[in-house]
């Protein structure tokens, strides 16, 4: 099984097509990070606006412009919106952190191929899961989609096997 994983990693290192796909994936990650950060900025502005609305609601209530029921309904709506906005910001921040801690696939694969002794940590960093069928066929699913791709034939077309 380790030899099969090494062979797949060697294929990855030898094929320029995979490198192009890896680079486009990296570009997508950078674009996503940029979009996440922009969305966070928009959401933070929205939070400031919500705080202003809540302050204004309270002032209007104190002036007697609202009945208690109306104030409670409007206030509750703004609090719920603020809660949802904060949750979305946290989710986006986790996505950014996840991408920041992502592994350099090229380095990981090269290290794996060049190692004489493979550690469990290295296997876990490359392999998502391994399935063994009733026919004793082993299917390895890698954490990186690019490693799950194989050439269909001698043409440049790729298929996803994992």
Q: Which helices and strands occur, and which strands form pairs?
A:
Elements lengths: L1 H13 L1 H47 L5 H33 L4 H10 L5 H7 E6 L5 E5 L2 H4 E3 L6 E3 L2
Antiparallel strand pairs: 1-2, 3-4
Helix pairs in contact: 1-4, 2-3
Sum up the structure in keywords.
single chain, 162 residues, mainly alpha, two-stranded antiparallel sheet, 6 helices, 4 strands, 70% helix, 10% strand, elongated, disordered C terminus
Our Rg estimate from Cα atoms comes to 25 Å
Number of helices: 6
Mean pLDDT: 75
List the uncertain runs.
Answer: 151-162
- As for the number of domains, it is 1
Could you tell me how far the N terminus lies from the C terminus, measured between alpha carbons in angstroms?
16 Å
Tell the overall outline: elongated
Order of helices and strands: HHHHHEEHEE
Biggest sheet statistics? 2 strands, antiparallel
The proportion of residues in beta strands is: 5-15%
> Would you count the extended β strands for me?
4
Please list the strands of the largest sheet in the order they lie side by side: 1-2
Alpha-beta classification: mainly alpha
Portion of residues within helices: over 70%
Structure notes:
The chain has one domain (2-160). Helices cover 70% and strands 10% of the residues. It contains six helices and four strands; from the N terminus they run αααααββαββ. The chain has helices spanning 2-14, 16-62, 68-100, 105-114, 120-126, 145-148; strands at 127-132, 138-142, 149-151, 158-160. Strand 3 (149-151) and strand 4 form a beta hairpin. Helix 1 crosses helix 4 and helix 2 (16-62) runs antiparallel to helix 3. Residues 151-162 have low confidence and may be disordered.
